[in-house]
Design brief:
Length: about 230
C-alpha cells in the first residue's frame, strides 16, 4: 500500500536536503521480508513518482540500505520511516489504520499460509493477541488532520486570471494509479483543477456499509500529496 503516511515521511525527508531519491522495493523483496504486496512494483513505482516531494525513484532498491547503496547514488545520508533508527514519524493513526485496511481487504490469515515470512506472521499474531473488546477486523481510525498538516501538504496556489479551470469529484478511496491517470487526463484539458472529495457519509450511502476504507481526511491528504494536485 502507498498511503499519505508514506507521503508525509517523504515530505519530511525532502526537507532535510535538496534532492530526494526514494528507493522502492521489488515485489520479490517485499514478499520475502513482509508478505505479498497489495500493489505491483510497477504500480508502486508510479505512485511514488506521483508524490510531489519525490525527485527520483530508485526501482528494485535493496531491502536494507547500505553505505554502498548511498555511494552508488551519490547520497549524503539516508532517511527512514518509524523505527528505532528513525526520527521521522508517520502521522498518528496511520499505522493502526493500515492494519485495519489489510484485514478488510482480505489479506490471508497467517495460520493458513506457511509461505509468509515470520515477520509478517508475527505481526498478524500480535494484532490478534492485542484485541480485547474490539475486533481487529473492524477497528477504525479517528485520525483528523490539523490545519497545519493540511497546509504542509498543500502548495496553496490560486488560479491565475484567464486560466482554464475544471472541477472533478469522487471518493478517491485507497488512492491508486487509476486515480493518478484520471487526474493527469483532467490536467490535459485544464491548467487548474479543483478536486471535490465526497464525505464518508456519501460514500457509505452509495457504496455500502464497509466503505469508505479510508476516512475523508485521509483521502484528502492522499490527493493533496499527488504531484498533479492543484492545491
Amino acid at each position: 500500500m502507498v498511503h499519505f503516511g508514506h507521503a508525509n515521511a517523504i515530505r519530511q525527508a525532502k526537507s532535510l536536503g535538496d534532492y530526494l531519491l526514494v528507493g522502492v522495493h521489488s515485489d520479490e523483496e517485499i514478499e520475502h521480508h513482509k508478505g505479498p504486496p497489495v500493489f505491483t512494483s510497477a504500480e508502486r513505482y508510479k505512485m511514488v513518482r506521483a508524490i510531489k516531494w519525490v525527485d527520483e525513484v530508485v526501482e528494485a532498491a535493496p531491502y536494507i540500505t547500505t553505505v554502498e547503496t548511498l555511494e552508488k547514488h551519490n547520497c549524503d545520508f539516508c532517511a527512514h520511516g518509524d523505527s528505532s533508527l528513525s526520527a521521522i514519524p508517520y502521522r498518528q493513526g496511520v499505522q493502526a489504520h493500515r492494519g485495519s485496511v489489510n484485514h478488510r481487504l482480505g489479506w490471508p490469515h497467517a495460520a493458513g499460509h506457511a509461505s509468509l515470512s515470520p515477520i509478517y506472521i508475527n505481526c498478524v499474531s500480535r494484532i490478534l493477541q492485542a484485541a480485547t473488546s474490539r475486533s481487529p477486523y473492524t477497528a477504525t481510525c479517528q485520525f483528523v488532520p490539523t490545519t497545519q498538516q493540511l497546509k504542509e501538504f498543500s502548495t496553496g496556489r490560486a488560479p491565475e486570471p484567464g486560466e482554464k479551470i475544471a472541477f472533478v469529484c469522487g471518493a478517491f478511496d485507497l488512492f491508486h494509479v487509476g486515480h493518478i491517470d484520471f487526474l493527469e487526463k483532467c490536467y490535459s484539458m485544464a491548467t487548474y483543477v479543483i478536486i471535490g472529495i465526497h464525505s464518508d457519509q456519501i460514500v457509505n450511502w452509495y457504496r455500502g456499509y464497509n466503505y469508505p476504507i479510508m476516512t475523508m481526511f485521509e483521502r484528502v491528504l492522499s490527493v493533496l500529496a499527488c504531484r498533479v494536485s492543484p492545491l
